[in-house]
Write a structure and sequence with these properties.
- It is a single chain.
- It is built from 2 helices and 2 strands.
Length: 100
């Protein structure tokens, strides 16, 4: 009888997990089960071609910004060459090292 009680108490907390096809990824409108669903990048649903196109344009703009920032970083590192130390700046110690 204890086993049945433990099983029952485990089922009390049942929370609804929304399915990824429940709402448009951009505008959050509910997706109708009898209408077309417009997909992008495999698993991203949209309610209309307009919402999907808006997401595509935002992704392309973010990618352009990322590429510009990356090219600026790489050009900065190419122009910044490390300074070479001259022999006068190096400290040299002569002596004997004893290891115990």
């Amino acid at each position: 009888m204890k086993a049945a009680a433990l099983y029952y108490t485990g089922c009390e907390e049942h929370h609804y997990q929304p399915h990824f096809l429940d709402a448009c990824s951009l505008c959050q409108r509910p997706l109708a089960h009898n209408h077309d669903i417009f997909m992008y990048r495999g698993d991203t649903p949209f309610c209309s071609q307009e919402c999907r196109q808006e997401q595509i344009e935002m992704d392309e703009a973010n990618e352009r910004k990322w590429k510009i920032a990356a090219s600026k970083r790489s050009s900065r590192t190419k122009t910044e060459t490390p300074t070479k130390e001259t022999d006068a700046n190096k400290a040299v110690r002569n002596g004997t090292v004893a290891v115990a």
